[in-house]
Amino acid sequence: MYEGDIASVLISEEQIRARTAELAEDIAKRYPTGAPEGDLLLIGVLKGAVFFMTDFARALPIPSQMEFMAVSSYGSSTSSSGVVRILKDLDKDIAGRHVLIVEDIIDSGLTLSWLMRNLKTRNPASLEVVTLLRKPDAVKIDVDVRDVGFDIPNEFVVGYGLDYAERYRDLPYIGTLDPEVYGG
Ligand code: 5GP
Ligand code: MG
Ligand code: MG
């Protein structure tokens, strides 16, 4: 599939599966089941985080519920500006709930830092983040991200939810794109 467009496989399907299981086991230990706050509430950011979100939820050994948000950060297709607009908001109130944001990738961290501030104003019982991927620039941000699947080099990646112009999300692995695809 997508023959010739993918320069290399950075993280294989099996590596993603194994790391997701580890993260789910670790994270579950921090959330007591049967708490008065209810089940852990996963918030996924459309569309990139969908694949990780559904695999992560199935790997979690505790009950969880799912909500989705869609945001658009102004900027080019390969970098974000930090100016964020909500395209689809949560359907439910998160006040008093234990919330875990499930992210695909943190690059500049601008999208996440905006999202954290926004969700905090809704008074959840707790607010944490798990991200599958993190790029080096993310060290500059103020958001404390405890759970990271993989730290990756500063390269544009696609697959497992991540797109270039809406393509390649359906690849089961994370790969780097041949620069020729985006005219590099
Ligand atoms: P940030 O605000 O942290 O710079 O960027 C977050 C968003 O930018 C991600 O949710 C993703 O949509 C997009 N993004 C950042 N780096 C990459 C990348 O390497 N590949 C793809 N496909 N999207 C990226
Ligand atoms: Mg994202
Ligand atoms: Mg994208």
UniProtKB/TrEMBL annotation:
Its main location: cytoplasm. Belongs to the purine/pyrimidine phosphoribosyltransferase family. It comes from Rhodococcus erythropolis (strain PR4 / NBRC 100887). Its cofactor is Mg(2+). It comes from the Bacteria. The keyword Glycosyltransferase applies. Residues 17-164 form the Phosphoribosyltransferase domain. It catalyses: GMP + diphosphate = guanine + 5-phospho-alpha-D-ribose 1-diphosphate; IMP + diphosphate = hypoxanthine + 5-phospho-alpha-D-ribose 1-diphosphate. InterPro entries: HGPRT (IPR050408), Hxn_phspho_trans (IPR005904), PRTase-like (IPR029057), PRTase_dom (IPR000836). It is found in: Cytoplasm. GO terms for biological process: GMP salvage; guanine salvage; hypoxanthine metabolic process; IMP salvage; purine ribonucleoside salvage. This is Hypoxanthine phosphoribosyltransferase. GO terms for cellular component: cytosol. The lineage of its organism: Bacteria, Bacillati, Actinomycetota, Actinomycetes, Mycobacteriales. Pathway: Purine metabolism; IMP biosynthesis via salvage pathway; IMP from hypoxanthine: step 1/1; Purine metabolism; GMP biosynthesis via salvage pathway; GMP from guanine: step 1/1. One of its GO terms (molecular function) is hypoxanthine phosphoribosyltransferase activity. The keyword Glycosyltransferase applies. It holds the Pfam family Pribosyltran. Keywords: Cytoplasm, Glycosyltransferase, Magnesium, Metal-binding, Nucleotide-binding, Purine salvage, Transferase. Its EC number is 2.4.2.8. NCBIfam families: HGPRTase (TIGR01203).
